[in-house]
Amino acid sequence: MPTAALIDGKAFAEALRTRVGTAATAFAQNTGRRPGLAVVLVGEDAASQVYVGAKGKACAAAGMASIEHRLPAETSEAALLSLVERLNQDEAVDGILVQLPLPAHLDEQAIIAAINPDKDVDGFHVISAGRLAVGQPGFVPCTPLGCIMLLKDRLGDDLSGLDAVVIGRSNIVGKPMAQLLVDANATVTIAHSRTRDLPALVRRADIVVAAVGRAEMVQADWIKPGATVIDVGINRLPPEPGKEKGRLVGDVAFDEARQVAGAITPVPGGVGPMTIAVLLRNTLIAAHRHAGLPAPEGL
Ligand code: NAD
User: Fold this and answer.
1) Is residue 122 flagged as an active site residue?
2) What is the DSSP string of 139-198?
3) What is the pTM for the complete model shown?
4) Which of 28, 99, 216, 297 has its CA 20 to 30 A from that of 192?
């Protein structure tokens, strides 16, 4: 019998999107314009096209303006930088998102660095990372911010006395995740590909955040009974015979881990839906700051 509670990221994300939509309507009534998110896609990457389409739809559903720029794969760095600069200056644009990965001839760091940090709703700019590190208001990458929202919803805002292990040290998930956990008073260890005896480390953790990208790597016998497990990984298994596509799974062996954990996010339906909901939330906050209005409460 499974013992873990399921952390329903889909429901949480839907509720967040509704709150954002209500606040976006109030913003439009106050200012005479909708919050605006500019999304830039360069090239034909299939997954990126799906993400960009989903972001545009989510914006529209939340009463925000979505300004899409789809550029050919051979776009030069100078042309992309000049578009980013135009969006920086555009009063109708509150948030700018350049969909990654970019084609290989474009320097991702240079492009992200060109975004005005006050419009950096993805939170990937070095100034955004610095603001998070020193506790100044800025933008936090959407996926880890979504994870901490789910954790706080379950465990409360103050994680004092809890040991957390974050598996993965990427700039967009692992590192900001660890920072958010520290800020919530958890005692945090970051594990990565060079960590020795990962199972022993994870066994001590009250909170496990897995952000590796390796299908079902975290085993049930690594998990402390009652721990809260947040699975960020999205991995596609090889297709079963007769099937076209394999199943999507996380970084945690879900069915087994569910027997041990206190609460766990499923894949899909856990962390995944939070990312776009938090992007909308960040854009709404960017719009309020841009307009000199206080950010709405409860987001
Ligand atoms: P990444 O490849 O940049 O980083 C992976 C991290 O895992 C690295 O820091 C590496 O040190 C660590 N790692 C690799 N092998 C390991 C091992 N054997 N033991 C311990 N650590 C190991 O990936 P990322 O961008 O941080 O994404 C991680 C996962 O999260 C991927 O599956 C990605 O698809 C998923 N993801 C999901 C969302 C979402 O919206 N749900 C958003 C971003 C990323």
Assistant:
1) yes
2) ---HHHHHHHHHHHHHH-S--TT-EEEEE---TTTHHHHHHHHHHTT-EEEEE-TT-S-H
3) 0.97
4) 99
